[in-house]
Request: fold
Amino acid sequence: MERPQNLNITPRIAIVIIILFHLVGLVGLSIPATRPLFLQIVPFHLLLMLGVIVLGHHKLNSRFGIFILVVFWLGFLAEWIGVHKGWLFGNYAYGKTLGIKLSDIPLMIGVNWFLLIYAVGVTMQRGRLKSAFFRVVTGAAILVLLDVLIEPVAIRFDYWAWVNNSIPLKNYVCWFGVSAIMLYIFELFSFKKQSMAAPVLLITEFVFFALLNVIVMI
Reply:
């Protein structure tokens, strides 16, 4: 089943939306007076990015839909295990910012896992690494670096909270492992080369959280 032509989003439009809404979000979260409002719309921002990425995917079909569902639920399951069993990531719990929860896990966390895996997967796909193994390992390492930037902001803005406010090394080790598994799944699907929209999303996320660390965490 192919995507109807009138639903196409060109790479240029997708990139503009990605950068524009992250810029607006950055400004809104940086100003104390507007911060509560912008924290409330974080789930809608994630849904917007989901729509942009999905509609920007070349040849949207049932295979891509299956990939989205697999990554969504794997990410959700990993977080459920982390929160309820403590086997992954460490001792943490989710706050209110990410919105509606199922069994104490925000549904948006599955969306977030998909966006990150897809963004890194496409970035590696467009790179020069010929080996799938090195693409997976490099991609997982990139996601760990991004998590290093996300963690202080997430704690400050009630995305989630750690017991004793201490982020364990286990969190980053598990981020690498879970990311590697899902990036391997991305490789198995062998999608055709995608546009620059996903790599731009990845770069924008790095800039967004790096600047928030500087602006808000001072």
